[in-house]
Amino acid sequence: MFHKHILLLIVALFSVAAISAATDTLSIQIIIQDAVAVDEIFIPIEYALYPPYPNPFNPDVNLLVDIPQQDRVYISILNVRGQEIAILENREIAPGRYEYHWRGVNYASGIYFARIQSSHFSKSIKISLLK
Questions:
Q1: CATH superfamily ID and name for 48-129
Q2: Concatenated DSSP letters for 41-99?
Q3: Which of 26, 90, 115, 119 is most buried, with most CB under 10 Å away?
């Protein structure tokens, strides 16, 4: 039964497969023909700073950002007084979706802000660190 499932799986995945089995040993020879790799690229149509997750967080928070065009992007974390306490990004980046992580393990519980700034977009979003 086990060998039949392996054979069906391999035949379904590859165009040519030769399988032989002897007692406790299973030998598989796989020949891949006309393999095609497709890289899917996501290009957003507008800037976005999505709601952080998890929020409230302890001690890690994730930020998801969409950048629709080549742009200089500055992403930072601010405390409730507006003081910058961390820089997550400060460079020119290509269009795409980016995920950033901030670890607040050395900071006190409280309200913080994640801020993104670029030449065409600016937004801040509240994040809550609960210890």
A1: Macroglobulin (MG2) domain (2.60.40.1930)
A2: ----SS-EEPPPBSSSBSSEEEEEEEE-SSEEEEEEEEETTS-EEEEEEEEEE-SEEEE
A3: 115
